[in-house]
């Protein structure tokens, strides 16, 4: 059986580390054309085949509720960052596609954000980063 106290200390440390790193990286989005939440949508779409992803897949990757994701995507459609169309294979779903403007906005922020992530993670060795990746994937059931 897992040591409950150790589990709680590890969880709190993981949570606080994530929170502190996230706060440090929020400045990456200041003065850009996309918010952090919009960046998350574009991350999923731009990295998908044909820069398109199902709405449910985008929602699964985000830390906000499905109705909030839907409203966010509707605002992104209005701003010309993505398009949204019915899923031809599932009438209950939609396909979200990054536009060229959305992909450009994503790439502009991704460069800065990637450097920021590397800087924040730099106290860890490559072996520690591999171990962290393995442990977090195990916690997520991947």
Automatic annotation (TrEMBL):
It comes from the Bacteria. This is MarR family transcriptional regulator. Residues 1-141 form the HTH marR-type domain. Pfam families: MarR_2 (PF12802). InterPro entries: HTH_MarR-typ (IPR000835), MarR/SlyA-like (IPR039422), WH-like_DNA-bd_sf (IPR036388), WH_DNA-bd_sf (IPR036390). Gene3D superfamilies: Winged helix-like DNA-binding domain superfamily/Winged helix DNA-binding domain. The lineage of its organism: Bacteria, Bacillati, Actinomycetota, Actinomycetes, Micrococcales.
């Amino acid at each position: 059986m897992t040591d409950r106290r150790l589990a709680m200390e590890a969880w709190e440390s993981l949570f606080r580390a994530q929170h502190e790193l996230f706060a440090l990286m929020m400045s990456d989005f200041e003065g850009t054309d996309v918010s952090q939440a919009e960046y998350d949508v574009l991350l999923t779409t731009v990295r998908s085949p044909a820069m398109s992803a199902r709405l449910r897949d985008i929602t699964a990757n985000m830390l906000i509720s499905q109705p909030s994701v839907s409203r966010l995507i509707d605002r992104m459609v209005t701003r010309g960052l993505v398009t949204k169309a019915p899923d031809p294979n599932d009438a209950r779903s939609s396909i979200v596609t990054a536009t060229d403007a959305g992909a450009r906005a994503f790439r502009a922020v991704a460069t800065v954000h990637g450097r920021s992530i590397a800087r924040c993670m730099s106290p860890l060795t490559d072996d520690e980063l591999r171990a962290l990746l393995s442990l977090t994937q195990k916690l997520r059931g991947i």
